[in-house]
Design goal:
This protein is mostly helical. The chain is built from 7 helices and 4 strands, in the order H-H-H-E-E-H-H-E-H-E-H.
């Protein structure tokens, strides 16, 4: 490509898009072409990650196998888990550093989570009631959440 060709290419592109003219003053045509959004290549299509599916997609899964969003809960902050909760949680764990469920089983593990014994379900009085709190290790908290609170798609036990 000669200097004349580069100049002609820049002029042609600049006429199409005045914004690029302001952005690319003094640069070569290849730089102008690179900056144009419609000149950028699309992401290549790949096979769906679902075993046995050969559908091509630009995402991980094709439309038929894309996981459905089922978590329609409010955000953590809207459910009460704010900086105030974080501070109260740290204070509680500093006073009760061991997992209460492990202690009932004569084991000892550090508490990492403050669990609501009775799920508060948005009731802020129950949420902030320290009599409804217990320190649990990660393992015990996950087990309790899955079995009793209806976590991970399980039914609530009451």
């Amino acid at each position: 490509m000669t200097a004349h060709d580069r100049f002609f290419c820049v002029i042609t592109i600049v006429r199409e898009n005045n914004y690029i003219k302001q952005l690319m003053r003094g640069k070569t045509a290849s730089a102008v072409l690179y900056c144009r959004g419609d000149e950028m290549p699309n992401k290549p299509l790949r096979p769906c990650k679902r075993a046995g599916c050969a559908a091509l997609t630009s995402n991980t899964y094709c439309e038929a196998h894309r996981p459905k969003q089922i978590d329609n809960r409010l955000s953590a902050a809207h459910r009460g888990y704010t900086s105030k909760w974080s501070k109260a949680r740290k204070t509680y764990l500093a006073k009760r550093p061991w997992c209460e469920e492990c202690e009932r089983q004569s084991k000892r593990a550090p508490a990492a989570e403050v669990d609501h014994i009775i799920p508060h379900c948005g009731d802020m009085v129950l949420f902030w009631s320290k009599n409804n709190w217990q320190g649990l290790c990660k393992s015990c908290h996950s087990t309790k959440t899955a079995q009793k609170d209806g976590g991970f798609g399980n039914k609530k036990l009451r």
